[in-house]
Structures are given as C-alpha cells and as structure tokens.
Specification:
This protein is α/β, with parallel strands linked by helices and 643 residues long. Helices cover 37% and strands 18% of the residues. The strands form four sheets. Strands 1-9-8-2-5-3-4 form a seven-stranded mixed beta sheet, sandwiched between helices. A six-stranded parallel beta sheet has the order 12-11-10-13-14-15, with helices on both faces. A six-stranded parallel beta sheet has the order 18-17-16-19-20-21, with helices on both faces. Strand 17, helix 21 and strand 18 form a beta-alpha-beta unit.
C-alpha cells in the first residue's frame, strides 16, 4: 500500500462512541486538576514534576531499563550502567517535569508565557509561511512541546497556523483539550479525521507542524539515530504534495520553568524530487541531529525502538536501497537452541529465514558447549554463547565488550525448555520474547508470543514446529534455499562410501557388528567402506575398524565439513551423524528404530530411511527392553539395495 493510499483510508470520520461513566469521572478529575493548575505558579509545578520523576525512577525498574536502552542507541551502545545511571535519572525527572509544565502551559497568561518561553529563530520560521508559501515543521517529542500550540501570537503575519495531533480515547477529555489547544489560534488536525484539511492549509500557505518521531507500524522502517524503526512519512507526504520549506522545531529546558523553542533549523534536502522514503530518511537524520543537542530533554520513557510481533513488514525497494546504503545499528536477536544437537540442526532453516528477512538482522546463538564450534561456522550467526555453565557465566558472556558494544538486544527466541536460560536473559529486558507455549516460563507476562506445538493429526517433520514460530511472525520461511545443504570444505574430493555404526541416541538404535559384516559382504569388492564416528567414540571406532578390516576416521561435529561432501554416500544409524552429513550434502541411508521417520528424517529429498514397525514404535527409548530390538529386523540385504 502506498503512503497516499494508506492515509486516504483515514478520511472517513468515525462515529462518536457512547460516553461511559468512567470517562465522565476522568473529565471531572481533570477539571479539578485544571483548577489547581491555575492557582499555583509554573516553578511549583516544575519542582513537583521533578519529584514525581524521581519517584518514578526509584520505583519503576522497567522504565529505567527502557530509558537506558534508548540512551544507548542514541549515544553509543558501549555505554555501561555507571555512565547511564545519572542520565537516566535526570531524563526521567525532566520528562515528568515537562509533562506537568505542559498542562500548566494551557492555562498561563500571555505575559506568563513570554516569561517562560524564549523563541529562537521565529522570524526564519514565520517568513517560510508568508506570501502563499508553506513552512512544514517536523517536531520531536522533546521538552515541553505543548508550548508550540500557544505561540500563535508570535506569528501575526501568517494567515494560518496548525498542527497534527493524536485524538484522545476519552471523547469528553478530547473535546476539552481540543478547545484549549485551539483557543489561541492554532488549528489542530487529527489523522483520524483525514488529511484534506492539512493539505488545504499547506497548499494555501501557512505554518503546519507534525510530531513526527513516534513509532508507527504502518510507516516505513528507516534508520532513526542509526537504528531501524517504524517511522511516519506524513511530513514527507505533505512536502511532496504541497512543497514549501521543511524545518525541525524542538523545545529544550534551559532552567526551572524556562524553555527555548528553537525554530530556525531548516532541513536541507539533497534532491527535492527524491521519493517519499528518501525524504523521510533525511527528515529522520535532521531530527536526530537536533535531539542530540539536548538529549536529556527527549521523551525516552516510551519504547521508541521497540520490536513487535510483525517486526519485519514488507518494505518497498526504495527503503531497501537506503538500508543497504547506510550503516545502521543491527537488529539484534538471541536464539536459544534446543539442548539436543540433533534437534538443533533442524533450526538451520529457521536461522536462514530469519537472517534473510531484514538486512540489518544480527543473530546471537545460545547453545550447549558441545555445539559451540559448529554454530561459529554458520554464516548467519554473528556470536555464540554457551548455556552449559552457571547463570552468571551466560550473563557475563552476553555482557562481554565484543557483544555488548554492538548495542542492546531486540528479540529473543526461546527454542529450549530451560528455566535457567530464561533467568539468564532477564537482564536483557526490555526485549520481545517469543517461543513455544510449552516452555516452562511461557506464562510470564514478559513472554510476549507463544506459538503452540503441533498436536494431533498426521505426523509432520520437527522442522515445521520451528517454522511455525516464523509464520506466526509473518516471516516467509518456505523458500527452497533455506533447506539447501552447505558446501563442504572437502567438495573437490571424489565421493566415498561411509558407514556410521554408532548412535548418539543410545544402543537401541544401533546394529550389531554381525549385521554390518553381512552388509559389507553384499557390497562390491571395490567399495572400500570408511567408518566415521564422533571423537567421543574414537575407542569403539578403532576396535570396530580393526575387527571389520576397514579404515576409520573420528571427528568432532564442527569438523565434519572436512570429512563429508555431497558426493559421499553414508549408511548410518539414527542420531547426530546423519543429520550432520545431510547438512553438508551427503546422501544418507538412515536406519531408524525408536523415532518416527516422518518427524526426524534428515532434511532433503536425496535420503532413504529404513525402519521396522512394531506396536511399540516409536518409543524414543535409549535402551530397548525387547529381546530383539526393532532395528535388528532391518535386513542388510535391504540396505544393500539402496547403496
């Protein structure tokens, strides 16, 4: 949907809702507060606001974390708590002071307003709205922005002076506040009422302001302070329709009860004919430069760079061109992998789809120590931390300079079932946490998105459970390239016949040595099978290789790319090795006993799975309690037919 189409949908005025009792009570309370505002001076309300801000800082740890996160994005991700703490406290005190002062601004006299507010560059802004020209002000939520609805009298030569605003949900309060804002000659326009009136003002000449720094899911995802976030393109849309001069206007607190309204900062556009997304990006850059002049006046109590369930809505090519051109702070995701290595390998398509959905995504993997070296090899993974150690150890890994300095995290996918990992990740708040609904911590309110495990119906592959999480986040994940095997370092070598007789799932899934001997007797004499095993099975592998008269090679999981390539054929029992072999492209003939092939077969269409069915299958047991385990019913002659 184009920007024009989106905003045109707002042209229909909604019917007013029925007034409820609690809305009337809210109005009466505000009227009492309004009367109190008139009685006490501005400096009193500023002091009261700073006291309220101090109380909020003291009592609300969640708000402290949000402000600290925002300041890290603005000032540099490497800032630590010791440097952030005084700035967080001052910002919260100043923000609450500005809120109460904004309410007081609505009832002060003109003389009191002139004593509290100094206009900087008002003549520059005024001249932009004369003689049929239009001045378009991009206003951040900084300082006491309600001042801007009261300074109409400073621009007597301008025919019309207006601003966009967001309507309140309480219609009674909305009517009262609207009348107060427009009492001094400022026209107020709500997006909910459509944009025709705004375009009419802008085309006829005048001054119009837009609070343009709020997060919006419906806008364009563009850098703001170097980090991508949902941004409104309304100022650029007005500019494209009506031309004129773009300004950044902001208010800054200079002392207790005094503010500057800085109005002389024009936005220099390199190409006025640029598309609406390029214009929005330039506006974002200008707003960021202005806010850096007085960072602590910004309204950072809200989650400005928040993540949502739909954190990667489709963007037009113009936005993608900007993101590829500009250096941006990464959108940081932690993926906590399952404890089972076999199951973790099924997360590879998940990581590939996640990495492809946004060009600014950076993935940090948390996994058991056994998997660390393997995941460091994957190009989609930027950092790897381990979950085997204590809670404090995992926290220290995430707090190391190499990881911490790249900025705060945005998202966590919990694909494991560990309470310990959850506790370790709590210091990363505020982040958006997503995972399966059977996670032991899924009931916590900070666990935002819960994807149900597949229950009932015909069996389906385990990889689909992980992809269901992506589908719940509107991320396309069915592209064939996400399931392609990796290119092995041994790709130039000729293919070999290999066999893996040892399983990571237990003895119930292993063939006895006699059946392997029978299989070798059925193979051509020049086949020269090679025994492959994990390093932990090196002793058994050497013994078997000597007894069977074959060569053996043992490698840790991370080094299987140097051992296996797409030309090889692997005959293996169920477990980690066939999963690794399929990841590096080998064709696998897998003997399965305790697990369902439909759920746990290696990814890809080249593989063959052989299994015997009994009433107790699947059992998922490490050791079989039957006299003859299921896997022994798979005949070597049948296996030889597929080699």
């Amino acid at each position: 949907m184009s920007p024009v189409e989106f905003y045109s949908m707002s042209d229909q005025v909604e019917q007013p809702a029925k007034v409820r009792l609690f809305q009337r009570i809210a109005l009466w309370g505000y009227l009492c507060f309004h009367a109190l505002l008139r009685c006490l001076p501005m400096r009193f309300w500023c002091r009261a606001g700073r006291c309220v801000g101090w109380a909020v800082w003291l009592c609300s740890a969640s708000r402290r974390r949000i402000v600290a996160r925002n300041l890290r994005i603005i000032l540099g991700g490497e800032l630590r708590s010791g440097e952030l703490a005084p700035m967080v406290r001052e910002n919260m005190k100043r923000t609450c002071m500005n809120f109460l002062a904004a309410a007081k601004i609505g009832v002060v006299t003109e003389d009191e307003l002139d004593a509290a507010v100094r206009i900087v560059g008002g003549d520059v802004y005024e001249n932009a709205g004369l003689n049929g020209r239009t001045g378009i002000a991009c206003i951040p939520h900084a300082g006491n922005w309600e001042i801007l609805s009261r300074i109409r009298s400073h621009f007597p030569k301008v025919g019309r002076y207006g601003a966009m605003y967001r309507r309140m949900s309480n219609p009674l309060l909305e009517k009262l506040v609207y009348s107060m804002r427009t009492a001094y000659g400022c026209e107020m326009f709500s997006k909910e009422d459509g944009l025709r009136a705004v375009f009419k003002l802008a085309k006829g000449g005048g001054l119009v302001g837009v609070l343009s720094d709020q997060f919006t899911q419906e806008g364009a995802f563009l850098p703001y302070f170097g980090k991508v976030t949902g941004t409104t393109y309304l100022p650029a849309l007005i500019y494209k329709r009506c031309r004129g001069t773009l300004f950044t206007i902001y208010t800054r607190n200079t002392s207790l009860g005094h503010w500057d309204a800085v109005m002389n900062r024009t936005i220099d556009l390199p190409d006025p004919q640029a598309n609406i997304y390029e214009l929005t990006f330039q506006i974002n850059k200008a707003l960021a430069e202005r806010q850096r002049e007085s960072v602590l006046d910004g309204f950072w109590l809200h989650h400005r760079w928040k993540a949502t369930r739909h954190f990667a809505p489709p963007q037009p090519p113009e936005v993608m061109d900007i993101l590829k051109r500009e250096k941006v702070q990464p959108f940081r995701i932690v993926v906590v992998l399952p404890e089972s290595f076999e199951e973790s390998l099924l997360v590879v398509p998940f990581l590939r789809a996640l990495h492809a959905v946004r060009c600014d995504i950076q993935i940090t993997v948390a996994c058991p120590d056994e998997q660390r070296d393997f995941w460091r090899m994957q190009k989609e993974v930027a950092h790897v931390v381990t979950t085997d150690a204590s809670e404090s150890s995992l926290s220290r890994q995430l707090d190391a300079d190499a990881i911490y300095n790249e900025g705060p995290f945005d998202y966590v996918f919990l694909l494991d079932c560990s309470r310990k990992t959850w506790r370790c990740l709590r210091p990363l708040m505020p982040v958006y946490i997503s995972g399966f609904d059977d996670h032991p911590c899924a009931g916590h309110r900070a666990f935002r998105m819960r994807t149900p495990r597949f229950k009932g119906g015909p069996p389906r592959h385990r990889v689909e459970s992980f992809l269901d999480i992506l589908r719940a986040h509107f991320i396309p994940c069915d592209q064939p390239e996400f399931f392609e095997p990796e290119c092995s370092k041994s790709a130039e070598r000729e293919g070999r016949l290999m066999f893996a007789p040892f399983s990571t799932l237990g003895p119930s899934t292993e063939w006895p040595r006699e059946q392997w001997e029978e299989l070798f007797s059925l193979l051509p004499e020049d086949s020269s099978p090679l025994l492959v095993a994990l390093s932990r099975d090196a002793g058994r592998a050497e013994e078997w290789a000597h007894a069977l008269g074959v060569e053996s090679i043992c490698r840790p999981p991370a080094e299987f790319d140097m051992l296996i390539n797409a030309k090889d054929i692997l005959v293996a029992v169920d477990g980690l090795i066939p999963m690794l072999a399929s990841h590096w492209g080998a064709r696998c003939i897998v003997l399965m006993a305790g697990r369902l092939p439909e759920c746990w077969r290696p990814l890809g269409k080249r593989h063959t799975v052989l299994h015997s069915h009994r009433p107790c299958h699947p059992c998922y047991c490490a050791a079989c309690d039957r006299e003859i385990p299921c896997i022994r019913e798979i005949s070597p002659a049948v296996v030889a037919e597929y080699v």
